Amino acid sequence: MIRQTLEDIEIIIILDNPDNNELKDIIWEYQSRCDKIVLLTPENNLGRGNARNLGIWSAQGKYVAIHDADDIDAPERLGEQYDYMEENPEVGVVFSWTVFTDEQGSIIPDSKSTPTPESKSLFQKQLNHQTMFIKTEIIQAFGGYADINYGEDIDLWMRLYLEDIQMWKIDALHSYYLSPLESSHSDYIEKLKKWRLSSLQFYVKYFRHTARDPLFFRFLVTTLSDYVALHFWKKNYIKYRNFTSRVKNYNSENK
After folding, report:
1. Coil, helix or strand for 47?
2. Whole-prediction pTM
3. Can you tell me the distance from the alpha carbon of 115 to that of 138, in angstroms, rounded to the nearest whole number?
4. What single DSSP character describes residue 118?
5. Percent helix, strand and coil across the chain, each to the nearest 5
6. Which residues contact 211 (CB under 8 A, 6 or more apart)?
7. Would you kindly state where each structural domain of the chain is located, as residue ranges?
C-alpha cells in the first residue's frame, strides 16, 4: 500500500487488538519512515464493522479504499480507481478484479472470473470487498458498516443498491488475496462458512428487493452450493471452485 503510484494518500491502520504490542512496534517502525501512515488503536476490540468505521470517520480524503491484512494491492490500484471515479462522477463506488494466492504468493489457477458485460444487475458485478473504492461522503452518509463481524460488506452493498448508488467494476487486476483454504490458519474454513451463511441471511432479509434482479436466484444457488461444499466437502473446496470457474469461463467464451 505504501508503494502506490497515487502519492497523495493517507494510510489509516486500525489495530483492533490493543494488546498486540509486537505488531504495534512494527507499525511504529513503518510510521517513522512514512508520514502517510496514521495508526489508530482503540482501547477495546471493536470487531470488523466498527473497526472499519473508526477509519472511515477519521478519513480526510475524498475517497475511502478498503485494504485488509491478507490483501496485496497492485501499485497502480488507487491511481487507476481514482482516475475512473474522477472521470465518472455519477459512480459512487468502484471495484476491481482479485485473484487468489497461496502463502508462497503463487496465483491459484482459475481464481479470476471472466469479465462480464455491462449490466445493472448487482449480482453480475461480482464485487470484491478488498478492492472497494468509495466516495467518503457516501459511506459516511450511509453510516458506514453495520455492527457485525460477518457479511458487513454485503449489508453495505445492499443498502447502497436500494438507494440506487451506482456501483461499477473496472476490468483491471488490482488485488492479490491470500486464499483462506491455502492459509495456515485452520479456523478459516469455519470463517468461510460463516461468510456464506451471513450472505444467505442477507439475501433473505432483502429478498423482496433483490428478487427482482434477473441474476439473483442464480447467485443465491451459487452461494448455497458454496456453503454446502464448505460444510461437507471442505478438503476439496478449491478443486470445486476451480471446476465451477472453468465451466463459467467456458460458457462465457462459447456464447
Report:
1. coil
2. 0.77
3. 26
4. P
5. 45, 15, 40
6. 217
7. 11-183
Angle at 8 between CA 137 and CA 80, to 5 degrees: 75
C-alpha cell at 19: 494488546
pLDDT of residue 243: 59
> Coil, helix or strand for 73?
strand
C-alpha distances in angstroms, 210 versus 73, 123, 190, 218, 222? Answer: 31, 9, 27, 12, 15
Cross-strand pairs, 134: 64, 93
C-alpha cell at 191: 470463517
From the CA atom positions of the chain, what is the Rg in Å?
18
Quote the CA–CA distance of 2 and 180 in Å, as a whole number. 24
pLDDT tens string 116-165 = 444 556 666 667 888 999 999 999 999 999 888 778 888 898 899 889 89
Contact 182, 188 (CB under 8 A): no
Secondary structure string (H, E, C) spanning 132-155: CEEEHHHHHHCCCCCCCCCCHHHH
What's 11-183's CATH class?
alpha beta
